């Protein structure tokens, strides 16, 4: 079963995304900060990461830069999620979704990136 790390400072949002992914055949692990997310990704070597762009401290932009710079994690697909349509970040991750997230589209995107 592929593992997906969900990184979002809003616990409720992270839990909903994790529950949707779990119901769709993924194992989901949650981190509620960018720094904790990087640690969790390094520990679990997931098949994909779903990361919020706007978080206190390290946001999705910084998390992506760190993970893509590390040889052990550079291959892991990252789905960036934001409430704002920040076009300058669209090419940064492997996929970019806006909130409110269409959960069917999120699952489809994660499936495509992990196969």
Describe the structure.
This protein is of the alpha/beta class. It has a single domain, classed as Response regulator (Rossmann fold), CATH 3.40.50.2300. 40% of the residues lie in helices and 21% in strands. It has 4 helices and 5 strands; from the N terminus they run βαβαβαββα. The chain has helices at 11-23, 34-44, 60-69, 103-114, and strands at residues 3-7, 27-31, 48-52, 78-82, 95-98. Strands 2-1-3-4-5 form a 5-stranded parallel sheet, with helices on both faces. Helix 2 packs parallel to helix 3. The chain is globular, with a radius of gyration of 12 Å. The mean pLDDT is 92.
List the helices and strands and how they pair.
Blueprint: E1 3-7, H1 11-23, E2 27-31, H2 34-44, E3 48-52, H3 60-69, E4 78-82, E5 95-98, H4 103-114
Parallel strand pairs: 1-2, 1-3, 3-4, 4-5
Helix pairs in contact: 2-3
Main sheet makeup: 5 strands, parallel
DSSP E strands, number:
5
Proportion in β-strands: 15-25%
CATH superfamily: Response regulator
Number of separate helices: 4
The averaged pLDDT comes out at 92
How many domains? The number is: 1
Share of helical residues: 40-55%
| Spatial shape | globular
Low-confidence runs of at least 5 consecutive residues: none
Series of H and E elements: EHEHEHEEH
For this structure, the CATH topology is Rossmann fold
CATH class: Alpha Beta
The value of Rg in angstroms is 12 Å
Instruction: Please list the strands of the largest sheet in the order they lie side by side.
Output: 2-1-3-4-5
Per CATH, which architecture?
3-Layer(aba) Sandwich
């Amino acid at each position: 079963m592929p593992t997906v790390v969900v990184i979002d400072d809003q616990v409720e949002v992270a839990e909903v995304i994790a529950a949707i992914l779990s119901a769709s055949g993924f194992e989901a692990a949650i981190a509620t900060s960018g720094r904790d997310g990087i640690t969790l990704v390094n520990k679990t070597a997931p098949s994909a990461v779903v990361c919020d762009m706007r978080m206190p401290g390290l946001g999705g932009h910084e998390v992506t830069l760190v993970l893509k710079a590390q040889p052990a994690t550079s291959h892991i697909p990252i789905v960036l999620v934001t409430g704002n349509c920040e076009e300058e970040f669209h090419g940064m991750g492997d996929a970019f979704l806006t909130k409110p997230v269409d959960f069917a589209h999120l699952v489809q995107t994660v499936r495509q990136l992990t196969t």
